[in-house]
Amino acid sequence: MASFRITGGTKLSGEITPQGAKNEALQILCAVLLTPEKVTINKVPDIRDVNKLIELLGDLGVIVKKLSAESYEFTAKDIKLDFFGTEEYTKKAASLRGSIMLLGPLLARFGKAMIPKPGGDKIGRRRLDTHFIGFEKLGAKFLFEQKSNYYHIDASELKGAYIHLDEASVTGTANVIMAACMAEGKTTIYNAACEPYIQQLCKMLNSMGAKITGVGSNLLYIEGVEALSGCEHTMLPDMIEIGSFIGLAAMTKSEITIKNVGLEHLGIIPDTFKRLGIKMEFRGDDIYIPSQENYEIESFIDGSIMTIADAIWPGFTPDLLSIVLVVATQAKGTVLVHQKMFESRLFFVDKLIDMGAQIILCDPHRATVIGLDRQINLRGISMTSPDIRAGVSLLIAALSADGESTIHNVEQIDRGYQHIDKRLNALGAKIERID
Ligand SMILES: CC(=O)N[C@H]1[C@@H](OP(=O)(O)OP(=O)(O)OC[C@H]2O[C@@H](n3ccc(=O)[nH]c3=O)[C@H](O)[C@@H]2O)O[C@H](CO)[C@@H](O)[C@@H]1O
Ligand SMILES: C=C(OP(=O)(O)O)C(=O)O
Question: Which of 58, 129, 313, 435 has its CA 20 to 30 A from that of 402?
Fold first, then answer.
């Protein structure tokens, strides 16, 4: 387990460019399996989860060519279906959440697929019903083998159907879209997730010859086609990384410019941080955050205490609530952070409390943060990163704190943030990686 040793209390300054989006990359990489032709992907982030998925594609027989630091070419011509079920496949596929999206494309192209229970953050129950009910509606047979923890799906042919998803699951929607692209006839997906990740996936699939309309909404129509061809696709900047950098700048009083953010795809994210009192300027496609001694949380119009809650897109993404929470610890004012989707994602607040933050964990989903308004600095401690976003929140807290902190298990952070220590050190942070 690697650790970060962080010396806090330094203001950062300079420019930082976000990586390509992690959660988009996981969908897009799975989609290369839909065609035997060449697919070129740009702005691929160099992060653990993405690298693991690329390795898994290679093991499955995809020809992987690295064209440059951020570009790859994939050719999924001869797929080794006998790799399924091997010890190596089980180990690798079970280690990340994104592997679940191998199912849709494999089912579409080869009529069968299997996957062990996928990994990802331990942030509460993460059910997969939406995926399998969707596949079943398209005509697939589903089996969960309890002994081996394996999901199997099988279909001699997929037929278009009307599918009302029981929840707007992000990976579930991506999986059903990919399975439906080459199904016979028309598929309607209602209550579809519509995150920019999904919009980007649809854009890519349409450029491969798929016929998907309604993109950006929760009602998608897919006209099945015989086959899909190659394409070139460029990933959007990672909106979660951008939100993390906004929070980092405010918390550490830093003057930072976040370059090429893809502003039109950030939805409600900038406004949510503004409600915490964080000032920012949009300069073309960059976000400039000035150094701020203090920031004050707004109240609701009727004067009541602000609540920041997650919601499915175009609401506020749950992946940024941990960042909001940590930033609020040094704001002036009070905010209720309500994590509606995941039931174990707020438990990391005990570490912030140990650092001196004033937080009441009301229940597993809600925490009230009483901002310290910089009257008292957080103090460095030793802690372990429980999940990817809590990990970065703790890193932000440590960078703002007095003294030295140690964060263990930073592999969690490396899952989704590209060379974060090096990139932040280039802005003046003091982060040492200890292997
Ligand atoms: C690899 C990847 O892309 N991971 C993201 C994806 O995970 P993932 O696709 O696994 O998450 P889902 O969208 O399926 O759902 C997340 C959780 O929210 C609950 N839920 C979902 C929809 C809904 O309408 N109501 C509801 O309560 C689900 O039961 C589940 O517990 O989306 C999550 C929700 O944005 C993000 O946190 C993850 O970073
Ligand atoms: C929860 C997340 O990731 P995953 O779904 O890969 O666990 C996340 O990116 O915040």
Answer: 435
